[in-house]
């Protein structure tokens, strides 16, 4: 069936219809904004009529709002409403009266005739207050509002309208008929322009001369409606499926503990409403919240489970929480899906068919593959409606991921919505015209801080369902809506060779890119402490997990499954999309920091215990010296590594140490660190996911440090770095292998810009920030700190405004990159700080790491959507390459970048004032590195270097050991697990969730190269099959080749 209109409607006819509809509304609706009297007083009870009668009348601003000062300031508003005989001549006697209010306030209390009738807040910010049934002229109602302004913004009473409505069993009042006309005109304009003529003919015969006689005018309205009845079967073919919804941010402008109260209040309200409105369906999308409810409100949780079992409550989740999706690692995403989906299956009997992510701040290009591997059939969001530059073009589409996986995806209607017939009609008509589907979705309910659908919303839904001029109204679960969609759309052959849902004939467009949110670009940087702790937890949890699994397999020690699962879920909770991005109030971060610390403590404890156990089991050779200390260097990555490692020096009588190789006892190059009690050692060929042994033996003395040179140049066989002694910038970055200068101008040039004017202060970067540069950084000092055979270090201290930025340029022997270790005392307000590298590479695109992959984003594109990507996220690296040469930046937890031909910049710090007025002020420690290279980023192995940058070799002391006859042969180096394909990086190695004798190995393609996975391991394991992220078997055979960018999970059984 073709739904799209064949011709455009006559705009003159549409204007006339809307004009008549507006005139009808004026007969039963009137704004009372100008009539409020106000006072900014501190009071705890509403004033009497005598008191507020002498208050001054308020002044409206140019938007028609009643504003007052920000900062938790109180405003009392009051007026006596007297029912008039008529509005615009139409008699009002016998109608029901409601007051429609919309406010922007942290708190709102509404009093009617001295009685508190309702409360609200910044998110529960609209209502219709009943003022009387069957009112009569002369009736008086005193209404008082107490409003408290937001801390960050002016308060406003946005709207106050009196609405006179007919009783449910009476003929509809003119205002309702006006909305019917608008609904019909909206659908007709989009779907059936020929119907406009019918509408025009019907409205022209209204008997306006009789408007003062209610009975006669109502009969005139009914005649008009009778003439419109031929349109009723047409519009009733369309269906609006309502689904009660309350977006529940787990933390934002309230602490986490308040979320539990909001959830309890919301869930009880929904269950109570379902008693009176059995048609009501509802959905919630956070398994983490359900888990809390089960533990702390078990009776309420059982009621929810019963509603789920009865089909009145949907479980639309897909992930443990609704996370930030730009700055978390790929394995975090996999665990969000694993724990979220398995909780739904274990608790409610089914996985979620829909990944319900209405509010996350952009969506990684690997999400389709990961969601599909998590048994999700559809991705849903409404956040792309927030774009500041372009309008996202699709309502329903196939989203093709980086590896070719296609996932059905939909743009949800706005969340936090009322049952507003005109808004519903606009959304529904657009959806139908674009998708060719006759059914659309609507999400009534107060959101963000909970609330859900209200009684008034449900009454309105019933009233509009009864109208002959409104689509069929039903309440359905999202999963039911999805099944209807799937039956009507055409199947889409996925590029990876599989099939995706679709049984019908409607062809959908395909989106082959990330879903970048053209807004909230500051979230990649704000509250760097949250990003730092997330990266630390991600790294050490995965390392601890797989070394603990190896210890269990080799030594038969217990595996700490419960402790690790708790730590994972603690970290996953903190990845919520207002915690990890840094866009919440200070109290949220105080709680989050405790949670991070608990998860990190568990990770460190598990990792240390596993390494201690493994080191204790190493068959050592005879010690080269009676006081020798055996050190096992453990490599958590799946490739052999040769690099400088820092080893803490043993306490005791020995004052000087030398390192010797474990197998042969040959001296190793060492250097005493000047920034701590440690020894730098040139570690070579540490096996993949394994260890290499070395010894620390007493020495007569440490070598005297070399005197610092007179120049400011760091040099190795890979790089020669010259610093500008006047600015502290990199003046030259010479690639010794390519015999080529990398830079075209200064490198690591600190640039500060004013970052003001954005309402979403912590979320956004001001679009015109580049037009407002601040004075350049000034150099306070430059000093040689280390100059030895393994490490050279120059420290520069610079001043940026009121802040100090100390940076150590560190160059290790044989390292292909220059590390920049930064300690900042950041004291700016609404300033963004960037590090710029001007490069001779004139690339047409920049490439960035994303979770489990990489994305090339074009530079200087003519596409406005691509131009809107003027600040973009990356995980651990970004690169500018032209195929012959390039420059990569590696980063530990700084994620914001911008690029132009010849320039790559890393965003280091922001300084927003809202919602956390102290965000990012204070002490920061972070690292990044610059890697010049020949060829492409693949040839330079940028992913390997970036992964290793955040994954150190672990130096573990082995217990004292005296060899005896019959001891096993010494093993001074060993790999527990490795494979041949260098493009595949390890993501997870852990026991199966269900079978203690099964182990799960997950790898991902970091280079975008087709390959195979052949596992080599001396562990007592044998490969059995390939699984999805839920660890359920898939049809993929072990020998099957892997697609570029594929994430692969294998099950291995203990022999």
Comma- or semicolon-separated keywords:
Jelly Rolls, nine-stranded antiparallel β-sheet, elongated, Substrate Binding Domain Of Dnak, Chain:A, Domain 2, 7-stranded beta/alpha barrel, alpha+beta
Could you explain the architecture of this structure?
The protein has 1055 residues and is α+β, with helices and mostly antiparallel strands. The protein folds into six domains: 11-232, Galactose-binding domain-like (Jelly Rolls); 239-519, 7-stranded beta/alpha barrel; 523-617, Substrate Binding Domain Of Dnak, Chain:A, Domain 2 (Up-down Bundle); 629-698, Immunoglobulin-like (Sandwich), CATH 2.60.40.1180; 713-949, Golgi alpha-mannosidase II, domain 4 (Beta-galactosidase, Chain A, domain 5), CATH 2.70.98.30; 977-1055, Immunoglobulin-like, CATH 2.60.40. The protein has 19 helices and 57 strands. It has a nine-stranded antiparallel beta sheet. Strands 1, 3, 7, 10 and 12 form a five-stranded antiparallel beta sheet that branches. The protein has a five-stranded antiparallel beta sheet with strand order 2-4-11-8-9, with no helix packed on it. Helix 7 (256-276) packs across helix 9. The longest helix is centred in the middle third of the chain and has 31 residues, at 586-616. The protein starts with 10 loop residues before the first helix and ends with a strand. The model has no long low-confidence stretch (mean pLDDT 96).
């Amino acid at each position: 069936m073709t739904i799209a209109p064949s011709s455009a409607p006559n705009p003159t006819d549409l204007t006339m219809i809307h004009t008549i509809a507006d005139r009808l509304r004026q007969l039963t609706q009137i704004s009372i904004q100008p009539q409020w009297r106000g006072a900014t007083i501190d009071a705890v009870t509403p004033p009497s009529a005598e008191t507020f009668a002498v208050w001054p009348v308020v002044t409206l601003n140019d938007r028609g709002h009643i504003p007052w000062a920000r900062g938790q300031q109180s405003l009392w508003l009051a007026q006596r409403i007297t029912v008039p005989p008529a509005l615009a001549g139409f008699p009002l006697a016998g109608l029901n009266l409601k007051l429609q209010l919309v406010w922007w306030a942290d708190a709102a209390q509404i009093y009617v005739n001295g009685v508190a009738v309702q409360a609200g807040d910044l998110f529960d910010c609209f209502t219709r207050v009943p003022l009387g049934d069957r009112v009569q002229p002369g009736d008086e109602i005193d209404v008082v509002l107490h409003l408290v302004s937001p801390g960050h913004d002016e308060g406003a009473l946005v709207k106050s309208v009196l609405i006179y409505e007919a009783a449910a069993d009476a003929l509809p009042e003119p205002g309702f008929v006006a909305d019917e006309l608008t609904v019909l005109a909206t659908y007709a304009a989009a779907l059936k322009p020929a119907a406009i003529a019918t509408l025009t003919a019907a409205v022209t015969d209204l008997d306006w001369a009789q408007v003062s006689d209610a009975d006669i005018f109502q009969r005139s309205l009914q005649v008009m409606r009778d003439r419109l009845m031929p349109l009723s079967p047409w519009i009733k073919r369309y269906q609006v499926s309502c689904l009660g919804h309350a977006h529940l941010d787990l933390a934002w402008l309230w602490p986490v503990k308040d979320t539990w109260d909001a959830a309890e209040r919301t869930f009880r309200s929904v269950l109570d409403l379902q008693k009176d409105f059995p048609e009501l369906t509802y959905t919630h999308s956070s398994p983490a919240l359900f888990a809390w409810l089960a533990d702390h409100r078990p009776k309420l949780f059982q009621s929810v489970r019963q509603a789920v079992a009865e089909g009145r409550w949907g479980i639309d989740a897909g992930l443990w929480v609704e996370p930030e999706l730009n700055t978390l690692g790929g394995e975090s995403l996999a665990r969000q899906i694993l724990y979220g989906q398995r909780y739904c299956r274990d608790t409610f009997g089914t996985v979620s068919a829909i990944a319900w992510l209405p509010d996350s701040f952009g969506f990684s290009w690997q999400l389709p593959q990961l969601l599909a591997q998590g048994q999700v059939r559809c991705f849903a969001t409404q956040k792309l409606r927030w774009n500041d530059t372009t309008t996202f073009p699709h309502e329903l589409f196939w989203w093709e991921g980086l590896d070719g996986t296609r996932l059905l995806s939909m743009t949800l209607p706005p969340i936090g919505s009322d049952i507003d017939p005109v808004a519903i009609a606009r959304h529904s008509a657009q959806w139908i015209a674009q998708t060719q589907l006759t059914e659309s979705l609507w999400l009534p309910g107060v959101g963000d801080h909970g609330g859900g659908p209200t009684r008034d919303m449900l009454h309105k839904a019933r009233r509009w369902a009864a109208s002959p001029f409104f689509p069929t109204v039903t309440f359905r679960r999202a999963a039911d809506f999805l099944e209807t969609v799937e039956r009507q759309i055409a199947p889409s052959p996925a590029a990876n060779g599989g099939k995706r849902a679709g049984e019908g004939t409607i062809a959908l467009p395909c989106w082959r890119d990330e879903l970048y949110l053209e807004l909230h670009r500051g979230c990649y940087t704000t509250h760097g402490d949250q990003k730092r702790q997330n990266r630390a937890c991600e790294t050490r949890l995965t390392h601890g997990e797989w070394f603990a699994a190896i210890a269990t397999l080799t030594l038969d020690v217990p595996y700490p499954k419960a402790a690790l699962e708790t730590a994972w879920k603690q970290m996953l909770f903190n990845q919520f999309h207002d915690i990890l991005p840094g866009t919440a109030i200070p109290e949220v971060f105080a709680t989050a920091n405790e949670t991070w610390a608990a998860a990190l403590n568990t990770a460190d404890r598990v990792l240390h215990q596993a390494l201690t156990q493994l080191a204790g089991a190493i068959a050592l050779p005879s010690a080269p010296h009676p006081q020798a200390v055996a050190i096992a260097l453990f490599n958590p990555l799946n490739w052999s590594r040769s690099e400088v490692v820092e080893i803490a020096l043993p306490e005791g009588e020995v004052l000087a140490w030398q390192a010797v190789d474990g197998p042969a006892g040959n001296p190793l190059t060492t250097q005493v660190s000047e920034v701590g009690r440690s020894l730098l050692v040139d570690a070579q060929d540490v096996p993949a996911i394994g260890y290499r042994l070395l010894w620390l033996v007493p020495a007569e003395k440490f070598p005297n440090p070399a005197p610092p040179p007179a120049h400011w140049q760091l040099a190795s066989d890979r790089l020669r770095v010259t610093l500008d002694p006047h600015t502290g910038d990199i003046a030259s970055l010479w690639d010794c292998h390519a015999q080529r200068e990398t830079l075209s101008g200064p490198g690591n040039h600190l640039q500060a810009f004013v970052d003001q004017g954005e309402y979403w202060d912590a979320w956004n970067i001001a679009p015109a920030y580049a037009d407002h540069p601040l004075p350049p950084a000034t150099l306070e000092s430059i000093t040689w700190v280390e100059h030895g055979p393994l490490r050279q270090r120059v420290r520069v201290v610079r001043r940026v405004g009121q802040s100090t930025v100390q940076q150590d340029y560190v160059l290790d022997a044989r390292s292909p990159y220059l590390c920049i270790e930064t300690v900042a005392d950041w004291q700016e307000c609404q300033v963004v700080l960037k590090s710029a590298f001007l490069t001779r590479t004139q690339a047409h695109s920049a490439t960035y790491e994303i979770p489990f992959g990489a994305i090339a984003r074009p530079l200087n594109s003519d596409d406005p959507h691509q131009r809107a990507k003027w600040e973009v996220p990356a995980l651990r690296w970004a690169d500018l390459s032209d195929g012959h040469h390039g420059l990569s930046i590696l980063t530990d937890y700084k994620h914001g970048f911008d690029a132009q031909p010849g320039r790559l910049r890393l965003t280091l710090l922001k300084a927003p004032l809202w919602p956390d007025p102290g965000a990012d002020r204070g002490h920061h420690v972070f690292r990044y590195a610059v890697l010049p290279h020949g060829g492409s980023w693949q040839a330079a192995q940028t992913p390997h270097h970036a992964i290793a940058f955040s994954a150190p070799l672990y130096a573990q002391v082995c217990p004292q050991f005296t060899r005896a006859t019959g001891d096993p042969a010494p093993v001074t180096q060993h790999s527990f697990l490795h494979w041949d394909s260098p493009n595949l990086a390890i993501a997870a190695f852990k026991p199966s969730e269900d079978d203690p004798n099964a182990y799960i190995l997950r790898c991902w393609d970091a280079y975008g190269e087709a390959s195979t996975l052949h596992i080599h391991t001396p562990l007592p394991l044998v490969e059995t099959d390939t699984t999805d992220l839920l660890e359920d078997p898939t049809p993929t055979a072990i020998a099957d080749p892997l697609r570029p960018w594929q994430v692969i999970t294998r099950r291995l059984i203990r022999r």
